[in-house]
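Example record

Each entry pairs one chain with its bound ligand, zinc ion.
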Amino acid sequence: MLRKVKRIKLGKQIYRRLMKRVLERDGWRCRKCGSLENLQIHHKIKRSQQGNDSLDNLVTLCAYCHLAEHGQLGYEKSAAEVLEKTVKRGRRLHWSSL
Ligand SMILES: [Zn+2]
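Structure tokens for the complex follow.
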């Protein structure tokens, strides 16, 4: 997505930190089926419905359960993929600093 939209939204790095916190809180498992693979972060309340990027509104789901939640094909990258890219860029993020 290359659209330039001015919205109050968390920066990518901050979002990744938040994602990690959600994953750690949920023990790196899908909250529905317990899967350890293809994990994604699901917004319980969609951003478009005033949902925000807080820990309370985020939950770890695998791609399949996430798909079931939305009733459509998932478009989000897996959490592992997103976090892996962060690491490749030089470990600039320190999760413990939050
Ligand atoms: Zn699942």
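The chain has one domain: 12-83.
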